[in-house]
Amino acid sequence: MAEKVNDCIATDLNSVISHLREHFNDTPDLIFREFGIKQTGEQGLLVFMDGLSDKNAINHDILRPLQFEEGSGQAGGKLIMNVGHIMTVETWMRVEQNLLNGFSTLFVDGRTEAYSLDTRGWPQRAIEDPQMESSLKGAHQGFVETGGQNIALIRRYIPNRELKIRKLTVGKRGRTEVSILYLEDVTNKQFINSLEERIRAITVDVIINTGELAEFVEDDPYSIFPQFMTTERPDAAASQILQGRCVVVLDRSPSVIVAPVSFMSFFQSVDDYSTRWSISTFIRLLRMFAFFVAAFLPAFYIAVVSYHFEIIPLKLLFTLGESRGRVPFPPFLEAIIMELTLEMLREAGVRLPAPVGQTVGIVGGIVIGQAVVQAGLISNTMVIIVSFTAIASFILPNYDMVAAVRLVRFMLMVLAAMFGFVGLTVGLMAMVGHLITLKSLGMPYSTPLAPLHIKDWKDTIIRMPLWKMNKRPEGSAPLQSVRQGNTRTKEEQE
Amino acid sequence: MNAQAQKQKPSITILQFICIISGIQIGVAVLSLPGNLVKAAGTDGWIAIIIGWIIAGVAGTVIVMVMKNGQDETILELISRTLGKWAGKLAALLMACYFVLLTFDGLNRTVLITKTWLLPNTSSFTLMVLMLIPSYAVLNNQIIAVGRYVVVIFLMSLWVPFIYLLPLKNGHLLHLLPVIKEGWGPVFIALKALIYPSLGIIAAFFLYPYLKNKKQAVAGMWVSNSITMGLYLFITVICLLFYSPDEFIQYNEPVISMLSSIEFRFVERIEVLFIAFYIFFFSMVWIPCLYLTVECTSWMLGGKKKTLHLQIICVGLAVITYLLKPTFSASDDLQERLMWIGFGFEYVLPVCLLGYLWIYGKFQPRR
Amino acid sequence: MPIMIVRRGLLACLLLIPLTGCADQIDLETATVPLALGMDLDEEGRFHYFTSEPIFSSKLKKTSHESSGTSTTLRQSRERQDSQILGLTLGRNFQVTIIGKRMMQHKGWFKMMDVLYRDARNTLTDRMIMFDGPVSELFALDQPDQPMMPVLLRGMVINKSSRSETANTSVQQLHRQMYETGITPYVSEITVSNKKIYMAGTALMDSKGIYVESLNTTESILLAVLQRTANPGISLTFQIPGVEKQPPFVSNSVSISPGKISTKIKTSYENGKFNFHIKVKTNVSLTEHLFPFDVFKEKKELEKKINEQMTKKLTALVHKIQKKKVDPIGLGLYARAHEYDAYMKVKDNWGEALSRGDVKIEVSVTIASVGAVR
């Protein structure tokens, strides 16, 4: 801070204006408003960014009391305004930042300090149902683009003073606010410290989205598996915090990061806790099965058809042989063509508005599927396999994991095409090897499986009744392991 | 972060300890064991397993007793402290050789079996490289990864023994009778066949310092031995029930051949799937052994650059496969040799060491 | 840093090596998967092989293709086969293996099957069948109204053997029966008459594998009773002597369907002879009796008569077996288990030893139900 002297704001209003004009040239949305302050009889200058600040507040709560209300009448006296949050700032740097964040700044002629008034009021979206993770029985409030509101949404679920927030700023140009939320008496300090350390180490212009932040702080950026979970549901975030994890809220981004997470967390959804435990156990097992289907089925098919067709039961062999006999492509190529078509359809559907997206789905799924088989380009078994795979991948509740599974699928297909089942086994081995060495914030990624925590299986592979889950998961090494007492007495259980 | 990780000494749980040792023992050895036992003692071979269980258990206990003499150090550090620096280096070299042989044997067998049953026309070299890729992925980390990997494989393979109950439909209890048909002589001769399949307890020399709760070590040794020998007994008895005693010796790998007779309605030739899955199982030999090799060589040369050592050994293994073109007979030969080398390392050495340490301990305070 | 790059590069190269290997890839449509394997000798004693493979096409009317030829070994025959057809021949999907009777009468035919056991990719669950006649006849059979011959034969063997009317010997089990000294091999037997395939029963072979005798379906059932492999569901019919017949109907018949049969075999060795005492005990349900008879009053008497008849039939079967010096029952296994030393002396000639032995059979049948009508 060698230029500290120069950084001090000017006392003279004219030099303030010229300084700001000089620094904010070509910034027509910076508004200057000069007026006389009736309260003290001094000359005032209000500067704010048009569009980022709330005009109503400026008109009614700042300009009106200052201009028309009686005050002490002494120069340098206290200014009375109807604004909740007033900051006294003394440096140009802070002034600039605050202006750009929607604060309006009041300069008073002759004073060495300026006042940043919280009139933030940028265009905002109303709180809506989450788009990506819709839930049947859960809450219908999703995160929005304002960090403060998102924190408020989480606080609504955990109104406890142990819920602490560490506030950091990231990005030289963007100066995005990043808040780490955690429970002081539960969450392991190691996670918070290493998360903070990593976020502090980021030196970039700006971080627009949570995905970017996650990429900067991930343990293994080369892995195809997501090591942090993003969610746009406050209830999900809150329940993760209660399990001893941290949540990172990034201002301007409608989703939050949950860390550390394990591989199995990607198979859980909030709805699991609002449906009956037997059913959600079944659904969890189904998801696990779906993961394997989505990752392995096309590869398995290729391996069977081009290496190990002796395992096909006789009756199926005839049908399979017949449908394969008409197809000009080898199984691998056939599978790749179909998988790529499917991926294209999916991408096409995502970007298009909902009604058009549906049409694309119908055209792709039914028309192309039917025609391609009839034309003898693709065997109908392959179409079945690919659609089965697609359905299986839709069952997984987390988008990032689905995306990872897609890549895994292609890798396994290549391996299967080269080595049959041996390739598949080696692929699975490499995947297991990778997953067990992977870490999320230093916590083992494959936690309840490796290292083995049988007790955590209650809420990972299956879901036991809630009143049986009295401890927090061991995997995330919570400081306080007891989550709840015995809800049901012995007699009731009988 | 790195400094933090290094400060924390890695530790393994008792379960990982058990699984690593059992894994090295069972691995590829389970395939040839029933055949070897039957060759030596006919249908009474299974009795030898019970005797072998006690012997291997005692050997394991001796190893733990040796390790109790040291304070949180591996066997190499213990040797160099008590016997001198150069003795330590020599021990490291010898053990590295031993482990690299075990690794090579495991990989070699896997490649050969894969070739026979699944991919007869693919070159051994290609398969070897293929097997080394996931090993490298696991081993690029510390002992923790090895422990976790082996536990996962164990969990994943828990259902395999149940499949072996299916061929029992065609089993005949009469094969086992009469018990002790040729007297106890052949049973004791058959003990020789159990040396090779019990190799692996030596891993305790290296795992002990990492063990979280050292008091459980002896129990862990016995549990892992019981798992190993229990599985051997199970498989051997099933093989004996399924194959007629006269027919048994006709098969090279009775444990795999037996699967050929399983029939399901929804899938034929189930053994193809199984052999592919067995690669997983076999990897429990070579992955820990490869880790131990790297541990020995890197300790010998100063304890740095483990990754480089791993890379050199992997490349070396691949090159050797390329040059040697593995065959079953060479592999059998290697197993025969390993049996005696292993006997020296895992049964004789610990006893000698224990004796030496006892004397060393007697004389030490007088100095 | 450059060293790191070089090392990474080398590793990457090593990873690329596996890309070269797809030598084992054979797509389903390019492969020819014979479902039946036939072997036979012709009049001049030349070795013939036959295969039947399905054609994966809906356009052709015929669903299977038969190929045949002569060669010295089975493995060699593969090249011959490949020259005849579109794809590559593989022995991975055999459903049945058929051996001609003539070939089975020659010592050493089993050695011809070596490749089935040696090449680990071949099936071992295909069922062994002996064909009474030249195998070429079977493979030339074209039956549009029936499933493909291999599928039909396998289905026949599996279904009939579930009712014990024939043997259920897979190639794997044949291996056991050939090498085990305490048992002689037996396989299913089929015949063709009027262009139709019939299940004839069981073919018995001696310890060298040479065909010696056939059992019809009834005898096969009785054999299964002695082998302790008979499942509930089998059916036995006896003619009771002393009951008046009304020709042309054989109205002195009674049919029973045993439930679980318990067969106990006791072994002893005396005076250089093996003695077996076989006790068959079962609860049966009466499925048919064609003569007037009060089941409630005369139940004991009928049971006695059935016992007598069954004992007679079983004894006849055992005598037949002893006469041919074979042992499909596997009595040798019992002999080894209980009289080890004596057995080891005659081990290599067990059939001979059994023929000199004594087999006593005792049947005790209890009628548990008589059906829906009186």
Q: What's the short version?
A:
The complex is a heterotrimer of chains A (494), B (367) and C (374). By secondary structure, chain B is mostly helical. Helix content of chain B is 73%, strand content 0%.
3D structure, described in words:
Mean pLDDT of chain A is 86; it is low at 1-5. In chain A, α10 (277-306) packs antiparallel against α14 (380-395) and α12 runs antiparallel to α13 (354-374). Chain A has 3 domains: 4-117, no CATH class; 147-261, no CATH class; 276-443, no CATH class. Chain A has helices at residues 4-7, 13-23, 55-68, 92-100, 147-157, 189-200, 210-217, 234-242, 271-274, 277-306, 314-325, 331-351, 354-374, 380-395, 399-437, 490-493; strands spanning 30-36, 43-49, 86-89, 104-108, 114-117, 163-170, 176-183, 229-231, 246-250, 256-259, 439-440, 443-444. In chain A, the strands form 3 sheets. Chain A has a 5-stranded antiparallel sheet, sandwiched between helices. In chain A, strands 6-7-9-10-8 form a 5-stranded antiparallel sheet, sandwiched between helices. Chain A is of the alpha+beta class and 494 residues long. Helices cover 46% and strands 12% of the residues of chain A. Chain B has 367 residues and is mainly α. Chain B has one domain: Amino acid/polyamine transporter I. Chain B is built from 18 helices and no strands. In chain B, α4 (45-68) packs antiparallel against α13 (217-242) and α8 packs antiparallel against α16. In chain C, a hairpin with a 5-residue loop joins β9 (196-205) and β10 (211-215). Chain C is 33% helix and 29% strand. Chain C has an 8-stranded mixed sheet, with helices on both faces. In chain C, strands 11-12-13-14 form a 4-stranded mixed sheet, with helices on both faces. A two-stranded parallel ribbon of chain C has the order 1-5. Chain C contains 12 helices and 14 strands. Chain C has 2 domains: 27-215; 225-374, GMP Synthetase, Chain A, domain 3 (2-Layer Sandwich). Chain C has 374 residues and is an alpha/beta fold. Chain C is globular, with a radius of gyration of 26 Å. In chain C, α9 (299-323) packs across α12 and α10 crosses α11. The N and C termini of chain C lie far apart (98 Å). Chains A and B meet through α15 of A and α7, α8 and α16 of B.
